[in-house]
Amino acid sequence: xxxxxxxxxxxxxxxxxxxxxxxxxxxLSYETVPVHLLRDGGDQLQPGYLETNPxxxxxxxxxxxxxxxxxxAILEYLDEVWPSPPLLPSIARDxxxxxxxxxxxxxxxxxxxxxxxxxxxEHEWHVPQxxxxxxxxxxxxxxxxxxEALLQDHPATGSFCDxxxxxxxxxxxxPQVYNARRFGVDLAPYPTIxxxxxACLALPAFDAARPERQPDAxx
Length: 219
What we know:
The chain is of the alpha+beta class. It contains nine helices and four strands, in the order E-H-E-H-E-E-H-H-H-H-H-H-H. The chain folds into two domains: 5-85, Glutaredoxin (3-Layer(aba) Sandwich); 92-206, Up-down Bundle (Glutathione S-transferase Yfyf (Class Pi), Chain A, domain 2), CATH 1.20.1050.10. It has a four-stranded mixed beta sheet, covered by helices on one side. A hairpin with a 2-residue loop joins strand 3 (60-63) and strand 4. Helix 1 (14-25) runs parallel beside helix 3, helix 1 (14-25) packs across helix 7 (168-182) and helix 7 packs across helix 8.
């Protein structure tokens, strides 16, 4: 399929980070359209952006004048349109496992620590910063404990979440590890996660997707 790729992104958004990794793994060039989630109350809340995404979230991928939303849906779209290298295993049971790992992060863990949730805790319930940070660390710990257990000793776990090639599970995991470090989560109890993180960040596709390397990152 022809057409330029544009990614509506914020440098520190975990969901956008996932898609950047996927685009890089596919070797696809794309234009970054910054959506600042904090400045002036947040670009995502402005009327112009609501036409791009009524959910008021990033990322959004624009391809061929069509807009695609939700990071996991975008990653699977990339895999279907540009199948090599694959982001999902070829066997159905293995695909189900990897989708389950990706959804553990994207559907269960990350939403509890999303910016809009933390803003609601702050502005509506007046939860102080230390308590909000404790909330984040608790839910990351809950999620990582489960993720680590699902990786440990599983025959499909290799250098990455599935064998020796990165998948959508790795695309989801690495941004969440970044978030965990931001909030001071003790990662020592998760040796398999840390081992996979090291393998991922050694790859140029993951390294180039790091938040600090994005064009809209603070100087």
